[in-house]
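Aim 2 progress update. The chain analyzed this quarter is reproduced below.
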Amino acid sequence: MIWVAAVSALLLAGALTGLRVLREYERAVVFRLGRVLPLRGPGLVVLIPLADRMVRVDLRTIALTIPPQEAITRDNVPVRVNAVAYFKVVDPVRSVNEVENHAVATSQLAQTSLRSVLGRHDLDALLAERDRLGESLQKVLDDQTEPWGVKVDLVEIKDVEIPEAMQRAIARQAEAERERRAKVINAEGEVQAARNLREAARTLSADPAAIQLRYLQTLLELGGEGRSTIVYPVPVDLPAPSPGASPMLPAALAAAATASGCACGRERRPS
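Predicted structure tokens:
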């Protein structure tokens, strides 16, 4: 009886050690005497002691931080770039049979691929087109990890470090570009202003009364509140002499207009 109880206890303990519980996001790759069995899980998995060996595979997305990599861009600028990759296992059996450690292998492959992709692009593209570079790197990694049963969903470039001398050069380039745009805008404004003045001159020359109204408006602006200048308007276009007027009067007025100009003024000194 003692031997029977001992054997029963041993069999019960062996049966209990052969039980495994897998979560919803886990799968089991079971090897029986060295040969792989069909995929199992999730839930309860029964193993034969001493004959079966189980490998757990996590199907959740893994965020892999790619260490900073130093590379030379296509225009011979040294840069230091770090990135992050998101991948997951889509075929647990291949992820166990085809590669020893799919996470480590994916990490090493991401580092080498990052340096290779950086070397095919210029610094301007690296700074301005990070999304496109991330998509290119994601495609490269996905094609190379597909035989391992791994799917790379996304690669994002986190930071790009460049030498300080290059930073100063980029700052000077940006400042020169802003100055160029300012000069172009100023020149375009001068052209538009000249064009508008030409149109205004044509409009005013079509009607002498419009010129006179503009002249009076200018006098009104000069004599605004708070001004200390007294303006004496003198007409330039003198009217024709009326019958019976003295013939010397227009000549005297013309001489006065020539001597004083269109308008003369003097400063009002405060008392």
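Residues 248-271 have pLDDT under 50 and may be disordered. The first strand starts at residue 19 and ends at 22. These observations will guide the mutagenesis experiments scheduled for the next reporting period.
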